[in-house]
Design a protein that fits this description.
- The protein has 13 helices and seven strands.
- It has helices at residues 2-32, 61-68, 88-92, 111-120, 143-151, 172-194, 210-216, 224-234, 255-281, 287-297, 302-319, 324-349, 354-379; strands at 48-54, 76-82, 100-104, 129-132, 157-164, 206-209, 239-249.
- α1 (2-32) packs across α6 (172-194), α1 (2-32) packs parallel to α12 (324-349) and α12 (324-349) crosses α13 (354-379).
- The model has no long low-confidence stretch (mean pLDDT 92).
């Protein structure tokens, strides 16, 4: 019995340690290594298609369209993939611009992925690049210029930063979500790119070759961005991360939406990873890239490991006193990693470190729901999309 418990503790804790050592390493890496882009200027201005999927975005659609139609790039079109049933269409109709197309569907088949795939059918035949932007985004006027410059350095796709700060000061939950999401955007993604590990497409603020996106299309399920990442990486396509090209976006500001978004992301990652794991391992990628993709996709399983580690660790602590120092050390190391992660993230977006502690608490609130999401990803063939509420209010003070 004791040997079985010790083995379970060792295995589960080792799995957790993989994900707790990374934040330490990535946070340190930020201070020592920066990727230097070539800094090429536009030699030509190829046609760019900007696709904005919209589902009941009446609070944000005018804001994003005003910003997008003010891009300083001279050769682009905008396609709003509108599945809305509220007043979104009426607000879009107020914009009279020859560059703007609206593609409306009467159903939500394939959710966001289905809307984007449908919009691609209406893209200008001369379009060389496609940019995806979520409807809650606030892009800068030079966004397209920067993205086109970067992809012309020899990449097949470039992912920019989704900076989750628009409503970060709405309440404590919004602050916590901003901190949690900023870690991935501002610390993990650039660190992985710096050391040559695969970059993840995150669903918005990325540019990709139009022909490539038309060839691959998006998998019409939740987690479509991660699933596309896996296929592109497997086939050897180069994806860059651009930590200097940011678009501000919103985060959930209530517990219900926070949990729903977390469940959707985790379920989609698990299902996509399990479905593609054999293809990934048989690809020509380096072992480090394969391992990183698989482990990243299985991140939701850390919650299973956490529960097992806590139960077995508690049993060992009270029944095998000689192991108590080891149990205390690993527990402290794991807990401190979460705090370091959140503090590093909070510092990046200028939020008080006290909210980093609240973010850590919120993360533990997510634990049972991550287990639920992982089980859904294992058992179900398709997920269910639940819309995250967007108020369209700007509540932040940093630039």
């Amino acid at each position: 019995m004791d040997l079985t418990v010790i083995v379970l503790y060792a295995v589960s804790t080792s799995f957790i340690l993989y994900f707790t050592i990374r934040p330490y390493a990535f946070s340190i890496l930020q201070f020592f290594k920066k990727y230097r882009f070539k800094g090429l200027k536009l030699i030509r201005v190829p046609k760019v298609t900007v696709i904005i999927p919209a589902y009941n975005e009446e609070n944000t659609i005018e804001r994003v369209l005003k910003n997008v139609l003010s891009f300083d790039y001279p050769n682009f079109e905008v396609i709003v993939a509108d599945d809305s049933t509220d007043g979104t269409a009426e607000k879009i109709s107020r914009f009279k611009d020859s560059r703007l197309k609206v593609v409306h569907r009467n159903d939500r088949k394939g959710w966001k992925a289905g809307a984007v795939n449908n919009a691609l059918n209406y893209a200008d035949p001369s379009s060389e690049y496609t940019v995806l932007l979520d409807a809650d985004s606030i892009p800068s006027a030079d966004l397209l210029t920067k993205l086109v410059e970067r992809i012309q350095e020899g990449y097949d796709a470039v992912q920019g930063v989704q900076l989750p700060v628009i409503n970060s000061e709405y309440n404590r939950i919004a602050k916590a979500n901003s901190i949690i999401q900023s870690y991935y955007q501002l610390i993990e993604q650039p660190s992985k790119f710096y050391i040559g590990l695969p970059v993840t497409l995150t669903g918005s603020n990325f540019i990709i070759k139009t022909a490539l996106l038309k060839e691959y299309r998006l998998n019409e399920d939740i987690g479509e961005d991660w699933e596309l990442t896996l296929r592109l990486a497997k086939d050897g396509h180069r994806i860059a991360y651009a930590p200097d090209i940011a678009v501000k976006c919103e985060v959930p500001f209530n517990l219900k939406d926070s949990i729903s978004q977390y469940v959707r992301w985790n379920e989609g990652m698990v299902r996509s990873t399990l479905g593609k794991i054999n293809d990934i391992m048989q690809s020509d990628m380096s072992f480090a890239s394969k391992a990183d993709l698989v482990m990243t996709g299985l991140t939701p399983f850390i919650t299973f490991a956490l529960v097992i580690s806590m139960i077995t660790g508690g049993y060992i602590y009270f029944n095998q006193t000689q192991f108590r120092p080891l149990i205390l050390f690993f527990t402290a190391f794991i807990m401190l990693s979460g705090i370091v992660t959140m503090i590093s993230s909070a510092s990046k977006i200028g939020l008080n470190y006290l909210y980093a502690l609240f973010s850590e608490i919120l993360y533990f609130v997510f634990v049972p729901f991550a287990i639920y999401a992982s089980l859904r990803g294992i058992v179900l063939k398709h997920g269910t999309f639940i819309r995250t509420t967007k108020l369209g209010e700007i509540k932040y003070t940093i630039e």
